Amino acid sequence: MRQSRAGILRRRGKRVEKPGFSTKRLFDIDVAVERVREAIKPFAKAAMFELADDGFNSVFEQLVACIISIRTLDEVTIPTARKLFAVARTPGQVSRLQVKKIDELISACTFHEAKARTIRTIASEAVQRFGGALPCDGEKLMELHGVGPKCANLVLGIACGQGKISVDIHVHRVTNRWGYVQTRTPEQTMAALEAKLPKQYWIEINSLLVPFGKHICTGRTPKCSTCPVLEMCQQVGVEVHR
């Protein structure tokens, strides 16, 4: 007999018994950040922060890494970026590679053929328009083929130290699940966080919530029973948890 999705979920985790709003502690972002910092210590860093720590921290390297990371797991992104950078790291070096060679080097990531063309185009534009070094300018970065707000902001935060918020699926899901923002899209979440999140956390929020969202506040059956933020979290949209 075929079981319903709800029946399967009940076997996998606990049904959420949501208390009234008044029983939840008022959300304190300072406390939440401190607790999440501690909770993610056992886990690997988000890909671009890991690569930056390894010395791949130029605007170009970070932008290329972000292109590689699109729809690709961090566990694949990091070795793939390192493989490319072992052969070519600067715009000049990458622009001299054939698209076929770039594709071969990044073949482990998703959409690698399209990404190879994008990476070579960006490298060529960096040489021709910017003298071989991409600027710390969000508008100019987003003029480049394949670069959107998420990658531009992440690059500006990590490579340039600019206070920018980068919202991926983890940041979007977790902050909405907390009830800290109430939005429908990552773009709306970015705007809401810019209006509410203290600026000292703008760069850090992505580095915190990527591993937190991957390992604790997961998309399906989140680990609410061990979550350090549970007493403040409104568990928006959570029906079943572990």
TrEMBL record:
One of its GO terms (molecular function) is class I DNA-(apurinic or apyrimidinic site) endonuclease activity. It comes from the Bacteria. Keywords: DNA damage, DNA repair, Glycosidase, Hydrolase, Lyase. Pfam families: HhH-GPD. InterPro entries: DNA_glycosylase (IPR011257), HhH-GPD_domain (IPR003265), HhH_base_excis_C (IPR023170). Its EC number is 4.2.99.18. GO terms for biological process: base-excision repair, AP site formation; nucleotide-excision repair. Residues 68-215 form the HhH-GPD domain. SMART domains: ENDO3c (SM00478). CDD domains: ENDO3c. Belongs to the Nth/MutY family. This is DNA-(Apurinic or apyrimidinic site) lyase. It comes from Pedosphaera parvula (strain Ellin514).
